[in-house]
Amino acid sequence: MATITRQGTLELRTKNEGSKSEGQYAILLTDEGAEFTLYRAGNMPMDDPFFAPYDGRIVEVVGVEEDPYFRVEEIKPCDHI
Questions:
Q1: In this predicted model, what pLDDT tens digit does every residue of 15-66 receive, in sequence order?
Q2: Is the Cβ–Cβ distance between 8 and 31 less than 8 Å?
Q3: Model pTM greater than 0.85?
Q4: Please, which contacts does 72-77 make with residues 24 or more away whose CB atoms are closer than 8 Å?
Q5: At 62, which helix (H) or strand (E)?
Q6: Neighbours of 21 (CB within 10 A)
Q7: DSSP letter string over 1-60?
Q8: How do the domains of the chain map onto residue ranges?
Q9: CATH number of the domain at 4-77, please?
């Protein structure tokens, strides 16, 4: 799959309450209304502390789209917007 760049607001959300997969998930909300669950290769998509510093921030992510997931290879804040 091809590497692409997406931009949007990263939001940490609690999902799957009451199940084994309950936890905080990093969600990317794009201006176009798309929503992707972010994860890093080799890591579970929930409770990854890597995404915590970006909560509530506009970010640019580079990686592979696997709808509804997005495998993040690089992330950077877009504070200049």
A1: 988 888 899 999 999 999 999 999 999 999 999 999 999 999 999 999 999 9
A2: yes
A3: yes
A4: 72/38, 72/39, 72/40, 73/3, 73/41, 75/51
A5: strand 58-66
A6: 12
A7: ---EEEEEEEEEEEESTTSTT-EEEEEEEETTS-EEEEE-TTS-SBS-GGGGGGTTSEEE
A8: 4-77
A9: 2.40.50.430
